[in-house]
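Late entry, written up from scratch paper. The run itself happened at the end of the previous shift, but nothing got recorded in the book at the time, so transcribing now.
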Amino acid sequence: MSMSLLIVQILNGLQLGVLLFLIAAGLTLVFGVMNFINLAHGVQYMLGAYLAVMFYGMTGSSLLALVFALLAALAFGLFLEFVVFRHLYERDHLDQVIATFGIILFLNQAVKYIWGAAPLSLPIPEYFSGSIVLLPGLTYPIWRLVIIASGLAIALLLYVLVSRTRLGMLVRAGANNAPMVSALGVDIRRLFMIVFGFGTMLAGFAGIMIAPILSVEPGMGDTILILAFVVIVIGGIGSIRGAFIAALLIGLADTLGRSFSVDILRLVMAPSPARTVGPAIASMLIYLMMALVLYFRPTGLFPPKGR
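Output as recorded:
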């Protein structure tokens, strides 16, 4: 285990963590404020990536592609909320799960119909291409550092919005006791629409940022959605702080576990079984973390006050 590899994997874990936070932030607020399970949140991540590819092809500008893709992701998220989701708020969780799962299937097929099933790619913006020297002999892609910095900046912005503004006060109150907030005269549906729209835009932003690194393909949001649910369970439903800390923990644990599990197991067992057991443990690590948190703190590590 070299120090250079450890630093690179820590940065990769931070990158995964901030992407998970961008997706989990909107998801945890929607679930916390309206008690609404939205399995289709992951498709906003996928659509953000596809929209960025489409607008880059139309404009040839990475900046314009980012702006137009964000606006389009926001508009489409609000469209889904108006047409589908608001009719499910009063239904039970099983109906919400079935309906939003149906949206996943529909949109995955729609993406195949519009853009095809073949993976697409988005070039890294020219001014962020290349690598930066971290240590002598150790370089790291600039774009990955941009992803980390952008995620941390958005986390700080969300903290200020949630903890220092009137809208944030209403969101926190809604996460604690939505019926009481509604009884005090607050239009809880309008509040939810704002939260939902902002959450879909964050998920779309995550898809846009990862598109130059990963292949843009149908179903790319399904796996990341599962990790996002793990994040909000560990962090605490409705908690932005919990989502941020849990996302970084999950990102680091998953990345470091997959990279170093075999090397660590070789310290206590023979190389051959270590190569067999290591990947299996690494793939289960984040779910073991979730199980431990549910056992010792069923409301999560940092639940909103009052829960």
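The longest helix spans residues 3-34.
(Scratch paper discarded after transcription.)
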